Amino acid sequence: MTDPADPEDLTRQMAQLARGFFVPHDLDRTLRGVTAAAVASVSGADSAGILVIESKKTFASHAGTSELPEQLDGIQEKLGEGPCVEAALNAMVVRSDDFRTEPRWPNFARAAVDAGVHSSMSFQLYTQRDSMGALNLFSFTPNGFGVEDEAIAEALAAHAAMALSAARHHEQFRSALASRDIIGQAKGMIMERFAVDAVRAFEMLAKLSQDSNTSLTVVAEKLVALGPERRS
Is 40 inside any structural domain? Predict the structure, then answer.
């Protein structure tokens, strides 16, 4: 945690972070860069993490700068309430200035105070059909975040959201390439084994997929795993 920089320095820092986030690397490293930047850039933040909720019921805590975010995410999953859940599912920004007097999530508020956390800010990062996420900042002091802190964190969350989107698309692209490659290998094996052209080989793969009610990629993986036909 550092003191906020002056506006010009902060603008340059945010620009550097944005450029860094878009370097194509794995998603975990991206998320850790986001949370580390949050603690470094927001004066009231003692810890930060990212909560991802899949299908509104499966919780996953990522890139915590300490063990605290994962602990609090687990409590929210168990209780079904809390600021991080509220931000991920329903609101762009959720802020609590003092959990000792927080009426919205009384059970979580008591647990947060017991864990030493007295205030928090949560920012929705993205919402998709089956996946929601929030960047969450926690402070050990009541009223730990000021108006300027919220503005800085919200700007950082916007960069984080774009970085997450880019990373997710990158992973999807790599997965699609891997699927294409394995299907290509299976198709080549069929072409050689049965002396058919590429179109007919793909049709045969598709028919196997349809008849077995199995995805085309899985069928291709099984065929490749079997290896080429052994000839006597």
Answer: yes
Tell me the three state secondary structure of residue 42.
Answer: coil
CA distance 119 to 30: 25
Task: Tell me the per-residue pLDDT of 169-225, one tens digit each, with 9 for 90 and over.
Answer: 666 666 666 778 888 888 888 888 888 888 888 888 888 888 888 888 888 888 888
Asked if the structure places residue 1 within a domain, the reply is: no
Which pair of structure tokens corresponds to residue 229? 């036909």
- Could you report how far apart the first and last alpha carbons of the chain are, in Å? 70
**CATH number of the domain enclosing 148:** 3.30.450.40
Arithmetic mean of pLDDT over the chain: 83
What confidence tier does 2 reach under pLDDT thresholds 50, 70, 90? very low
What is the Cα–Cα distance from 58 to 68, expressed in whole angstroms? 19
**Using N-to-C axis directions, what is the helix angle for 147-194 and 198-212, rounded to 10°?**
110
3-state secondary structure of 123: strand
pLDDT the model gives residue 232: 40
Note whether 158 and 185 are same-domain residues.
no
| Tokens encoding 164 | 């997450």
Angle at CA of residue 131, ends 128 and 15, nearest 5°: 75
Shared domain check, 80 and 16: yes
Give 44's DSSP letter. Answer: T
Q: Are 121 and 145 in contact (CB under 8 A)?
A: yes
